[in-house]
Amino acid sequence: MIQRLQTVFLAVATLLNLSAYFTPIYDKAMADPQQWIGYGLAISLLIPMAINILAIFLYENRKNQMSWVKRSGLMQVIALGFCAGVMLSMGGIGTYLWDEALGTGLVLLGLIFQILALRNIRKDEELVRSMDRIR
Fold this sequence. Notes:
With 135 residues, the chain is mostly helical. Helices cover 81% and strands 0% of the residues. The chain has one domain (5-134). Helix 1 packs antiparallel against helix 5, helix 2 (24-30) packs across helix 3 and helix 4 (62-89) packs antiparallel against helix 5 (98-134).
């Protein structure tokens, strides 16, 4: 389980989502007068973290693991949309918004690590299929 590369990628994606809670973009989203933006960002970061942890333990059923990682990626895209919305509501990316851009970058890196995990799960599935054909 731990020795597989996709497990590491999913764990790193989870840690990146967790670290996004401690960035200024999250603080700005929670301070927004329309509270649904802050709660939407918080939930859309929490759901992929939970799904990634679940997907780590689904290593025996790769097809099921792939479907859960895809669902997690969809929620990660929604979280990225919330981050981009908060950034644009503050006036875009300027010289004084680098801290907020860092939070958005962490969410984007989480999505990239989920894509890498999905790619490695597919490689494992193809390897198992080719071994079954050889037998």
